[in-house]
Specification:
82% helix; 0% strand; mainly alpha
């Protein structure tokens, strides 16, 4: 069951980054299509994925987590196959949106299924492995994408999901048991779901397109204004409907603080991924394939240390391990800002930073994920998992948007100083997440001391 859920999370978060490297190859195939329109191959996935995570989790808690998981997995796998053979840019964008729907169904249900099956004493370790799978997928996406594009073209980037999805479908049918909300008589509040999806999608749209359209552009301003209006409508709806997303888990202080910490840490995490790839290819002159190989040790370190980090969290507590992880990650980003000069020296100037950030991710991401769901009642496992994944995704979108603003627009990448600024931003942001974890630890101790 852990393998099935981890594979699902791996595929969903892999596609959030792997296609970025393939985008120039996609442009070469559809050279007659405007770049601004073709960019929806990337942006459409991120926006729809972020918008549907919480509604998908809520739906899964109500109608069955296994059922929603299998539907999402089938949709994601079939959409990946259709992306591989897409005859036009329009078809590719459409199938990417279907992929995003499938991924949104997969992520909260995978964690919800895991929480529903594992005994309490094994949850931290299990969630650590699942969180590590998602973190490794996001980090290894650029390197794997570069390798696949180098071997053939962009179509191979989508084809890799098909055998993985097929294997996961076969295993899931055998090992997953149905789970759902044991309280009878509940039905989804479709209006709240629509308001929430609209709010998140407009926020993601504004963050994604801000660097391209300009932050003062009427379309960006309208996106944020529309999100504020929909959020106000959602708050009004929650007063009359007890079963709404805003009423579920954010009233639990530890859950609220853990999601804030995840959003901030994800901002630093995704900002650094983009900065690393652009630095290696533009300043050190690496090929995309070589840059991918240079980045790979970090995700490998994360995968190796995720299990031990989970055991440490089980022994010493979630907040201390997550806080140390965020500080270690910040130190790794600071290493790059101070030591990665204009002349390539991988072993001396790059590898130590990779070791620090890989270890930091292993300690921070999985433990924060656990903190975001451990206090939830069983009937809200998938819903809370969706909220956790939404915080991570929005943090990623925000981090990428800020890095693009720091480094420059439309591929006009700045000099070395701009990359120092980008890594400094990632280090400061990771440090801020450590501060949020400190507050989380205080809230957890207060909750534990109550009779």
């Amino acid at each position: 069951m852990l393998v099935v859920c981890s594979l699902a999370a791996f595929m969903a978060f892999l596609d959030a980054t792997i296609v970025n490297v393939a985008f120039p190859s996609i442009q070469g195939t559809f050279h007659h299509v405007a770049r601004s329109w073709l960019s929806w191959v990337l942006n459409g996935y991120n926006i729809v994925f972020a918008a549907l995570l919480v509604p998908a989790g809520q739906l899964a808690d109500l109608v069955g987590r296994r059922r929603v998981f299998m539907v999402g997995l089938l949709a994601f796998t079939l959409a990946s196959l259709l992306c591989t053979i897409a005859p036009s840019a329009e078809a590719l964008v459409a199938m990417r949106l279907v992929q995003a729907v499938g991924a949104a169904l997969l992520v909260p249900t995978s964690l919800g299924l895991l929480l529903g099956e594992l005994p309490v004493e094994k949850r931290i370790g299990g969630i650590a492995m699942l969180g590590a799978s998602a973190a490794v997928a996001a980090a290894v996406g650029p390197s794997l994408g570069g390798l696949l594009v180098h071997a053939s073209n962009w179509r191979l980037v989508f084809l890799v999901n098909v055998p993985l999805g097929g294997i996961t479908l076969l295993m899931g049918r055998r090992v997953l048991r149905e789970q759902h909300d044991l309280e009878q008589g509940r039905v989804p509040d479709w209006l709240s779901i629509g308001l929430l999806a609209g709010t998140v999608s407009l926020v993601a749209l504004g963050l994604t397109q801000g660097p391209n359209w300009g932050w003062g552009d009427a379309r960006v301003v309208s996106s944020f204004a529309g999100a504020a209006l929909l959020l106000a409508a959602l708050a009004w709806r929650s007063r009359s409907q007890p079963w709404t997303t805003s009423d579920l888990s954010l009233r639990i202080p530890s859950v609220r603080l853990a999601n804030v910490a995840i959003l901030i840490f994800a901002c630093a995490f995704y900002a650094k991924i983009l900065t690393d790839v652009l630095f290696l290819t533009s300043i050190w002159g690496y090929t995309v394939l070589a840059a991918g190989a240079a980045i790979t040790p970090g995700p490998l370190i994360t995968a190796v240390l995720a299990g031990p980090a989970g055991r440490l969290a089980n022994r010493f507590g979630l907040a201390p391990v997550a806080g140390i992880g965020a500080v270690v990650y910040a130190a790794g980003c600071a290493w790059y800002a101070l030591r990665a000069g204009t002349h390539a020296d991988y072993v001396i100037r790059w590898l130590p930073g990779t070791a620090l950030t890989g270890a930091g991710i292993a300690m921070a991401f999985p433990t924060l994920t656990t903190a975001a769901v451990e206090a939830l009642p069983a009937r809200l496992y998938a819903t809370g998992s969706g909220l956790n994944a939404t915080a991570r995704q929005l943090g990623g979108v925000l981090g990428v948007a800020i890095v693009i603003a720091i480094l420059g627009h439309a591929g006009a990448v700045g000099g070395h100083n701009a990359f120092v600024d980008a890594w400094t931003f990632a280090a400061i942001t990771a440090g801020l997440s450590a501060g949020a974890v400190l507050v989380l630890g205080q809230a957890s101790r207060a909750r534990a001391s109550r009779p």
